[in-house]
């Protein structure tokens, strides 16, 4: 679908989309369209229950006196609710409606709305962004789709009095959407297609945008002493990889300490010898969502030429049971030198991340590290699918992340850390064990484990197990892979670390 920006005028063909605020207050464009169509909107309003509340849609087919296919009146709700997310959601809703009725071409007429925090240009850009986000589909393996099962919209135009400014405001959003689509693709792909080597190869494509890529293989990781990550990988026929992505966008100081994003990339998690039940195991193809978000985030940052030095690191392994798999009770030595008793091979994400974290702080001396991981089922028990869990050893970092999450519509909820939780992973046989034993505070215990590998660097951990995949559509996120965390972290970077 093409997204275009043009001057405000009455379109001659396709669908025209106009708005009404609550209490049936038509925008100036809605009034103009009503007039051109001989009062069609006024008549339809009288015959309907449409009041202009958010989520309401009134469609008028083949209006007399015009060549239009339809007039779509969309409820804008209260002007104050038309913030960034409000406009984005409208874009997603409009697109969904148009695809649902088989429309191919539409013009959305955007007037400045008094009381909205956004002007018309920014509003037009956000509507286009919301529509683009909602247009995502992962259907490459559905070879027998009938035409009526496919989206029809080909051209989505945003008409405003500030075309140039709207187009300019859309540019970076379009690049963020490119990153989000890459993440959604990577997370949606099955594990026979995306495994450590192929996921690393996908990350390597970011070189075309100026991202410096290094791929560490098993031999290199062995040399670095990453016994913990390699212990997880050893049960799989697919060799592990660690990908380092560097974006050096800070204007002058190319050597200025970077900010760091780390991702859990378990391309399939069977549980290993501590094998998972078979029901629902297919979900574990998206146990690399943290890595998928970090790769997509680097694409977004490079795509919009963010003025920041950022590194992305993803630890890629497949967790399989086999004759070479690690056993419960094995003791491994991590790159940090700390030894770990592996009491449950299904608590593998922390075993992967701990070596990635140590490597990251040791090599890059970053300002801070933020990791994303589908780390625990327990976070779904705590927070369901509405918030990701946030853990941090630094209050400022936690506050900035929480604020960015609110702005981006990806909510975080801070969870506690503390010495008493930390003691739960002390081991009699090694420096620590990888589970506490028992089901208490599972997500916190996992975060405590990671904290032992921060070496004092400011750090935050996002447990995205409950939000990486969605079973229902929302306005801008079709069901499936959400790329949760990408919009949040892009916003977090833009608000705090550029310029
Ligand atoms: N990848 C899982 C966590 C997960 C569960 C993500 C459900 C998404 C949906 C993780 O590797 C895992 O298996 N965690 C265990 C930890 C336990 C063994 C301490 C869990 O949550 O059960
Ligand atoms: Mn697991
Ligand atoms: Zn896992």
Notes on the protein architecture:
The strands form four sheets. The chain has an eight-stranded mixed sheet with strand order 8-9-11-10-14-18-15-16, sandwiched between helices. The radius of gyration is 25 Å and the shape is elongated. It is built from 15 helices and 20 strands. The two termini are 34 Å apart. The relative contact order is 0.11. The longest helix has 26 residues, at 163-188. Strand 12 (330-333) and strand 13 (339-342) form a beta hairpin. Helices cover 35% and strands 21% of the residues. The protein has helices at residues 28-36, 40-46, 84-100, 120-134, 163-188, 196-204, 218-224, 227-233, 289-303, 349-364, 378-383, 395-408, 419-422, 442-451, 486-496, and strands at 2-7, 15-21, 25-26, 57-61, 70-77, 105-109, 155-160, 212-216, 241-248, 259-269, 309-319, 330-333, 339-342, 369-373, 388-392, 412-414, 432-433, 459-463, 469-470, 480-481. It folds into two domains: 2-162, Leucine Aminopeptidase, subunit E, domain 1 (3-Layer(aba) Sandwich), CATH 3.40.220; 176-496, 3-Layer(aba) Sandwich (Aminopeptidase). With 499 residues, the protein is an alpha/beta fold. The site of ligand BES has 15 residues, from loops.
**What does the average pLDDT come to?**
98
Q: What's the structural domain tally?
A: 2
CATH topology annotation of the largest domain: Aminopeptidase
Q: Classify the beta-strand content into a percent band.
A: 15-25%
Helix content: 25-40%
Query: Per the principal axes of the C-alpha atoms, what is the gross shape?
Result: elongated
Query: What's the CATH first level of the largest domain?
Result: Alpha Beta
Total number of strands: 20
With strands numbered from the N-terminus, the spatial order across the biggest sheet is: 8-9-11-10-14-18-15-16
Distance between the termini: 34 Å
- CATH 2nd-level architecture of the largest domain: 3-Layer(aba) Sandwich
Instruction: Identify the bound ligands.
Output: ligand BES, manganese (II) ion, zinc ion
Total of helices = 15
CATH superfamily heading of the largest domain? Zn peptidases
Let me know the largest β-sheet.
Answer: 8 strands, mixed
Low-confidence stretches: none
Question: Rounded to an integer, what's the Rg over CA atoms?
Answer: 25 Å
Structural class: alpha/beta
């Amino acid at each position: 679908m093409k997204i275009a920006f043009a001057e405000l005028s009455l379109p001659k063909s396709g669908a025209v989309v106009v708005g009404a605020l609550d209490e049936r207050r038509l925008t100036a464009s809605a009034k103009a369209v009503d007039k051109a169509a001989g009062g069609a909107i006024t008549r339809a309003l009288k015959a309907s229950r449409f009041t202009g509340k958010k989520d309401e849609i009134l469609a008028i087919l083949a209006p007399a006196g015009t060549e239009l296919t339809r007039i779509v009146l969309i409820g804008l709700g209260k002007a104050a609710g038309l913030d960034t997310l409000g406009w984005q959601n409208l874009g997603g809703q409009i697109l969904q409606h148009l695809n649902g009725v088989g429309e191919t071409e539409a013009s959305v007429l955007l007037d400045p709305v008094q009381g909205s925090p956004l002007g018309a240009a920014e509003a037009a850009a956000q509507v286009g962004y919301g529509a683009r986000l909602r247009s995502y589909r992962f259907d490459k393996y559905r070879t027998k789709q009938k035409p009526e099962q496919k989206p029809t919209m080909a051209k989505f135009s945003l008409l405003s009095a500030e075309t140039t400014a709207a187009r300019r405001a859309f540019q970076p959003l379009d690049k963020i959407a490119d990153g989000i689509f890459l993440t959604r693709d990577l997370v949606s792909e099955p594990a026979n297609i995306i495994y450590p080597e192929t996921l690393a190869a996908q990350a390597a494509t970011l070189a075309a945008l100026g991202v410096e890529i290094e791929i560490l293989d098993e031999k290199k990781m062995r040399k670095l002493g990453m016994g913990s990550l390699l212990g997880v990988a050893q049960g799989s026929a697919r060799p592990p990889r660690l990908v380092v992505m560097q974006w050096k966008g800070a204007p002058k100081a190319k050597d200025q300490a970077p900010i760091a994003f780390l991702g859990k990339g378990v391309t399939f998690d069977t549980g290993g010898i501590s094998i998972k039940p078979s029901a629902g195991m297919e979900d574990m193809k998206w146990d690399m969502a943290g890595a998928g978000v970090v790769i997509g985030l680097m694409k977004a940052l490079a795509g919009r030429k963010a003025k920041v030095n950022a590194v992305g690191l993803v630890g890629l392994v497949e967790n399989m049971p086999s004759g070479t798999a690690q056993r419960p009770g094995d003791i491994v030595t991590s790159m940090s030198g700390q030894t770990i008793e592996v009491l449950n091979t299904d608590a593998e994400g922390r075993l992967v991340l701990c070596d990635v974290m140590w490597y990251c702080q040791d090599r890059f001396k970053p300002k801070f590290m933020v990791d994303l991981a589908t780390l625990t089922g327990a976070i779904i028990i705590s927070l369901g699918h509405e918030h990701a869990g946030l853990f941090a050893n630094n209050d400022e970092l936690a506050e900035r992340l929480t604020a960015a999450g609110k702005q981006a519509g990806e909510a975080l909820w801070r969870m506690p850390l503390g010495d008493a939780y930390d003691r739960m992973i002390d081991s009699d046989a090694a420096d620590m064990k990888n589970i506490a034993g028992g089901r208490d505070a599972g997500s916190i215990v996992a975060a405590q484990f990671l904290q032992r590998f921060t070496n004092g660097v400011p750090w935050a951990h996002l447990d995205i197990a409950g939000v990486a995949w969605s079973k229902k559509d929302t306005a801008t996120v079709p069901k499936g892979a959400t790329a949760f965390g990408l919009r949040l972290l892009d916003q977090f970077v833009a608000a705090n670390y550029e310029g």
